[in-house]
Design goal:
Low-confidence stretches: 235-240
Shape: globular
Number of strands: 10
Largest sheet: 8 strands, antiparallel, barrel
Mean pLDDT: 91
Distance between the termini: 39 Å
Radius of gyration: 18 Å
Structural class: alpha+beta
Order of helices and strands: EHEEHEEEHHEEEEHH
Length: about 240
């Protein structure tokens, strides 16, 4: 087994597509039950921009659309449009459970990868970096689409719960540079729709469960990657 997976910790992940009205009600219910995430700015939010990768078979997209319960995807993620923290991530999903592997990059490494110089990941002592390197060399893992949104995060110590509201989902169409100053993303989701995610470890406290429940609200697959991919004109499924 890849040594990068030795200490992998899986968490529950539940996703819901909600409207603005539901968002305001749920947020009000949570007001005295959770606290804002420490990484949020003074307005309680932060900005996320991710560059998603896929291989020559578009496996990540195909497996998601095919309803595979076990799948994974790769992305480079930055926060608040800054290069102070650049993470190359692998998100692994097994049913309703998720885990992540993360490899920090500096700006030079990021630029090298974007320019096709994958040797910066050839680090035999680093199992995850080597996995990324081999995916790029053997399976032609390449940048596909930028996913851009604003996140409003809350946390609760009991159950290590994290609740996020992801708003203003946008896509970069065929752009692939996270730091392009001329980057002008377009809306990928109606502004009235928000993606709510609930993540927790062993259990979800009953008072949290009650707060996020609403009539007609059902758990559903809400992949930002798939939503943004529909704007790419080279997908054979786009008009289906």
């Amino acid at each position: 087994m890849n040594k990068a997976y030795n200490n992998l910790k899986f968490r529950h992940e539940l996703k819901f597509m909600i409207n603005r009205h539901q968002y305001f009600i749920i947020r009000q219910r949570l007001k005295n039950l959770v606290r804002p995430d420490k990484y949020a700015s003074t307005n309680g939010e932060y900005h996320i921009r991710s560059l998603y990768f896929d291989d020559y078979e578009n496996s990540a997209l195909s497996e998601k659309l095919g309803g595979f319960r076990d799948r994974h995807k790769y992305r480079i993620r930055v926060y608040n449009r800054s290069d102070r923290l650049i993470l190359f991530e692998k998100k692994i999903k097994c049913g309703d459970y998720i885990a992540k592997l993360k490899e920090p990059l500096d700006r030079d490494m990021y630029e090298a990868i974007l320019n096709g110089n994958y040797e910066v990941l050839h680090r035999p002592a680093n199992p995850f970096a080597m996995e990324l390197y081999l995916e790029m060399k053997q399976h032609l893992l390449r940048p596909r689409v930028i996913v851009d949104y604003v996140r409003e995060p809350y946390v609760c110590g009991n159950g290590n719960v994290r609740i996020t509201f992801d708003k203003e989902l946008r896509t970069g169409l065929h752009a692939t540079d996270l730091f392009d100053q001329s980057f002008n993303p377009v809306p990928a989701l109606d502004d009235q729709h928000i993606i709510m995610e609930v993540k927790y470890d062993e259990y979800l406290p009953e008072y949290i469960k009650a707060a996020v429940q609403m009539e007609g609200l059902h758990q559903q697959a809400a992949s930002k990657y798939v939503i943004c991919c529909k704007y790419l004109k080279n997908n054979h499924w786009e008009d289906q």
